[in-house]
Design goal:
Number of domains: 2
Order of helices and strands: EEHEHHEHEHEHEHEHEEHHHEHEEEH
Shape: globular
Largest sheet: 7 strands, mixed
GO biological process, one term: L-histidine biosynthetic process
Number of helices: 13
Helix content: 25-40%
CATH topology of the largest domain: Aspartate Aminotransferase, domain 2
Pfam families: Aminotran_1_2
CATH architecture of the largest domain: 3-Layer(aba) Sandwich
Distance between the termini: 83 Å
Protein name: Histidinol-phosphate aminotransferase
Strand order of the largest sheet: 4-10-9-8-7-5-6
InterPro entries: Aminotransferase_I/II_large (IPR004839), HisP_aminotrans (IPR005861), HistidinolP_aminotransfase (IPR050106), PyrdxlP-dep_Trfase (IPR015424), PyrdxlP-dep_Trfase_major (IPR015421), PyrdxlP-dep_Trfase_small (IPR015422)
Family: Belongs to the class-II pyridoxal-phosphate-dependent aminotransferase family. Histidinol-phosphate aminotransferase subfamily.
Length: 388
C-alpha cells in the first residue's frame, strides 16, 4: 500500500489527505441571510388563571368556525390515508363561484403566508428589494430576508399607507410591493382609487401584492380588495385567508388570485400537497356558508364599537379600525406603558399583542372578541390605569 493511501471498510482506496478532511468535525451552515432572521412570534394565549381566559392577541373569530366547516372536518377523518388533491380543484372552483373568478387563476396555500413564501421563491433573489409600509405585516420582511433581498419601509401618513411615500422608494431593484389593505396592525385602509394610483405609478415588472386578510370585514363604499386590478393587469396579486372571519386558523388555508403567468410560476415552487384535504373540505363548506359570515360580521361590528368606545373613554386614543382588532395608544409614561399594560392584563387572563416589533412600542393591538372578552379587557385596563 502506498504511504498516501488508506482503505475504508469496503476496501476502497482513499487518499490520506481526503480521509483527514472526511474525519474533521464540521457542521452544515445555513445561508448567511438566514441567520439574520428573527423568527416570527405569534400572539400568545393568556397565562393560566383560575377564572376565564380570553386570547385577544391573534385576531381570531370569537364565534369559531361555521358549523358546516366543522362537519366537513369530521367527515374528512374517514379517509385520512388518502393524499389530498394537490391542485385543490374543488376548493378553487368554490372560491371562483363565490367571487365570479377564473378558477385557473387561483392558487391555494397553507395560509396566505405560504403564498407570500411562494412569491419570494419565484421572484426574489439576493440584492432585490421589496417595499412595504412602515407598520406592515412582519411576514413580508421575513420573505425578503429568506431570499437575501432588502426591505424598504415607506413612512405612513397618520397610520395609513402613503402611496406617494411608497412610490418614492421604488428603484430599479424593486421586485415586489406588499400592501395589507386593511393593514395589520393599524386597522386602517386606503381607498381603491389610491390603490389604483399606486399601481399606475409602479413599473410594469414590479408585482403589487394586495393582502386582503381582513377584506371581508370592510363595508366602506370606497374600498375594494383588488379583484378588478388583478383582472385588468399582469402584475397584481390579491391574497385572502380563511384564518380570520371564516375561523379556520388552525387548518392553515389561504388563496391568491393572480395573472396566469404568475400562477404558473407559483405552482412550480409550491409543495406537491401543500393544502391538506381536511383544510380543502372545510374551506369549501366555509365559503358556501355566507350566513355564518354575515353573523360574524355583525358580531364584530357591534363589539368593535363597544371596544373602541371603551378605549376612548379610558383615554387610550384608539385608531379607527375596519378590521377585527383595534390599535390602542398608551402614554409614554412609566407605570402606564403599553408593555406594562399587556403584562398586567395577562395576569387577569387576557392576552393582547404588544407592538414593539411593529415599531409601535407605545401601542397594543386588541382583537375584537366576545362581549365578555371586551368587558374583561376594558375592566382590566381601567384597573391598570387606576393603579399606576
Amino acid at each position: 500500500m502506498k504511504s498516501d493511501e488508506i482503505f475504508n471498510s469496503q476496501d476502497v482506496k482513499i487518499p490520506i489527505v481526503k480521509a483527514r478532511m472526511m474525519t474533521k468535525k464540521q457542521r452544515p451552515e445555513p445561508l448567511p441571510q438566514i441567520l439574520d432572521i428573527s423568527p416570527y412570534v405569534p400572539g400568545h394565549a393568556p397565562s393560566p388563571s383560575t377564572g376565564r381566559v380570553f386570547k385577544l392577541a391573534s385576531n381570531e373569530n370569537p364565534l369559531g368556525a361555521s358549523p358546516a366547516a366543522r362537519r366537513a372536518v369530521e367527515e374528512a377523518t374517514s379517509h385520512l390515508e388518502v393524499y389530498p388533491d394537490g391542485n385543490a380543484t374543488r376548493l378553487r372552483e368554490a372560491i371562483a363561484e363565490r367571487y365570479g373568478l377564473d378558477a385557473n387563476r387561483i392558487i391555494c396555500g397553507a395560509g396566505s403566508d405560504e403564498i407570500f413564501q411562494m412569491l419570494g421563491k419565484a421572484y426574489l433573489e439576493k440584492g432585490d428589494e421589496i417595499i412595504q409600509s412602515t407598520h406592515g405585516f412582519l411576514v413580508y420582511e421575513l420573505v425578503a430576508q429568506q431570499a437575501g433581498a432588502i426591505t424598504k419601509s415607506a413612512p405612513e401618513k397618520q397610520l395609513h399607507t402613503d402611496v406617494d411615500a411608497i412610490l418614492d422608494c421604488v428603484t430599479e431593484k424593486t421586485k415586489i410591493v406588499f400592501i395589507a389593505n386593511p393593514n395589520n396592525p393599524t386597522g386602517t385602509y386606503i381607498s381603491f382609487e389610491e390603490v389604483r394610483r399606486l399601481h399606475a405609478g409602479l413599473p410594469s415588472h414590479v408585482i403589487l401584492v394586495l393582502d386582503g386578510a381582513y377584506a371581508e370585514y370592510v363595508r366602506a363604499n370606497d374600498y375594494a380588495a383588488g379583484i378588478e386590478l388583478v383582472s385588468e393587469f399582469e402584475n397584481v396579486v390579491m391574497t385572502r385567508t380563511f384564518s380570520k372571519i371564516y375561523g379556520l386558523a388552525a387548518l392553515r388555508l389561504g388563496w391568491a388570485y393572480a395573472p396566469a403567468h404568475i400562477i404558473d410560476a407559483l405552482h412550480r415552487v409550491r409543495g406537491p400537497f401543500n393544502v391538506s384535504e381536511t383544510a380543502q373540505l372545510a374551506g369549501i363548506a366555509a365559503i358556501q356558508d355566507q350566513a355564518f359570515l354575515e353573523t360574524s360580521l355583525a358580531h364584530n361590528n357591534e363589539q368593535r364599537e363597544r371596544l373602541f368606545a371603551g378605549l376612548e373613554k379610558l383615554g387610550l386614543d384608539p385608531v379607527p379600525s375596519v378590521a377585527n382588532f383595534i390599535l390602542a395608544k398608551f402614554p409614554e409614561k412609566l407605570g402606564q406603558s403599553a408593555v406594562e399594560a399587556a403584562k398586567f392584563l395577562d395576569t387577569k387572563g387576557v392576552s393582547v399583542r404588544a407592538m414593539v416589533s411593529y415599531k409601535l412600542p407605545h401601542c397594543l393591538r386588541i382583537s375584537v372578541g366576545s362581549a365578555d372578552s371586551v368587558d374583561a379587557v376594558l375592566s382590566g385596563l381601567e384597573e391598570f390605569l387606576a393603579a399606576s
